[in-house]
Amino acid sequence: MLTTSAKALEVNLDDVRYGSFAEIGAGQEVVRWFFRVGGAAGTIAKSISAYDMKVSDDIYGKAPRYVCRERLEAMLALEYDLNLERLSEQRGDRTAFFAFADTVSARNYHGTNECHGWLGIRFQTTPQAAPSEIIIHVRMLDNENALQQEALGIIGVNLIYGAFHLSHSPDCLVKSLLDNLSTDRIEVDMVELKGDAFIHVDNRVISLRLVQLGLSDAAMFSADGKVLQPSEHLRKKNVLVERGRFRPVTHVNIDMLNAARKRFEAEDQEAAGETISIMEITMHNLTSKDDQIDLEDFISRADVLRETGQTVMISDYPEYHRLATYLSRYTDRRIGLIMGAHSLVELFNQKYYAALNGGILEGFGRLFKNNVKLYIYPYKDAETDTLYKIDNLNVSIKQKHLFDYLKQCGVIEQIEASNEDYLHIFSPDVLNMIMTNQSGWEALVPDIVAEKIKAQKLFGYPG
Fold it and tell me: How far is the C-alpha of 181 from the C-alpha of 152, rounded, in Å?
C-alpha cells in the first residue's frame, strides 16, 4: 500500500493530469497534501475555499444545504467547465483535466453537529476524453476536529489517486478509499461511479462492495438503481422496513409491505405521505456457506425488486436492534419493522443476545429505544392449518412475561389486512420451482416479476 504522500507525489509527477481543487469546510486538507509533497505546479491550476456562505452562493448558486450532494455537483460542474474554458486551447491536446471538490461539516466547537461530507472528482481519463465522475459521502468518526481534517485529507488523496490509477478496477478503487485509514475514523456510506470510465459498472454492486469490504455497515439504492445516501434519503421521514431474502420477490413479500404500510400510516394519517418503504437484505442472506457472494444471484434479486419499484438496503446488521439503531441515526420520526409471526418467535431466542452484557433485555431495550414498532404478518402452519398471530404464538415460557409486556406497551402490532390466499407461499419453494422449471410458479409471484425472470433467465430459470 502506498503512503498518502507517495500517492500525492505520483499524481503531481504525472504530466498529463492538471486541474483544480475547491473545498468548503474543514480547511483545504486535500490540496494541502499536493502542495506539501512538491511538484504541485504541474498538477494544480487553482485552489479555492469559498467558506463564507454568501461567497459560496455567489460562485456556485444556492443549494438546500451547504453540505449536500447538490452543492458538490454544482462545484464540480463549474470548476471542471472553467478548466476547459480557460485551458483547452492552450493545452487541451496533451492534458487530462480534472476538478476535485468537497463540502464538509467537521466537528464544531461544541461537538453538537453531524460530522460528514461529500467529496467528488470529475476527470478525463485521457486528453479530450468525455468526463467521468466519482462521488462519495463520508461520516467522520474522530472526536477531534484536527483528526477529522487529517482523515478527510487522506481519503481525498485516495479518491484522486484511485480515479487516475484504479478506474479500470472499481473493486480495487473502492477498497483503496480507506488506505492509511480505518473504519474507526471514517465511514464511506455512498459511492457512485459514472461516465465513460465506468460505462459497464453497476452501482448496485458498488453499494454491495461497500458493505462487504467493511467501509460501511449499510448502503442503499433506489428502484432505478441510483445510489442513495441514507441521511439525505431518510431525513425527516417515517421509515418502514421489510427484511428478507427476496429470492425471488413473491406475492407474500408485497402483501406484507402493503398491509403493514396501511396499518403504519393509519396510526399517523397526517404523515401518510412522508413514509419511506425499504426492502432490506442482510449480508448474511447474501453469503453462501463458504462466505462467498454470488453476484449474479445478487443482481437477480436487485432486478426483481426494481421491477416492483422498491428501494433496497444492503446491511451488515443481522440483529434487529442494530438495524433500528442505524435507522434512528438518520431520522427522529417513526420506524416500523415488518416481520412474519414465525420470525417474531425467533426474536425471543436468547442465543441472539449472548454478546450483550444485558442479554435479551438489553437487546429489546435497544430495539425499542427510538420510536420503533414491530408489525407482524400472520403465519399459517401447512401441517396443522393453524393461523398464527401475536395472540397465539408459542413464545418460550421464560420470555412469555416479556412478550406480554411488549404487547401491552403497543410496540408489537398485528397486521390484520393480510391476504390469506398468499400465506402458503414461501420463497425457497418458489425458487426450487423456478430452477427445476416446475409449472405454476408464475402464479406465486407478481406478473411483472415472472416476466422479468423469464426474459432474463434469473435464479437459474432454464427457460
Answer: 10
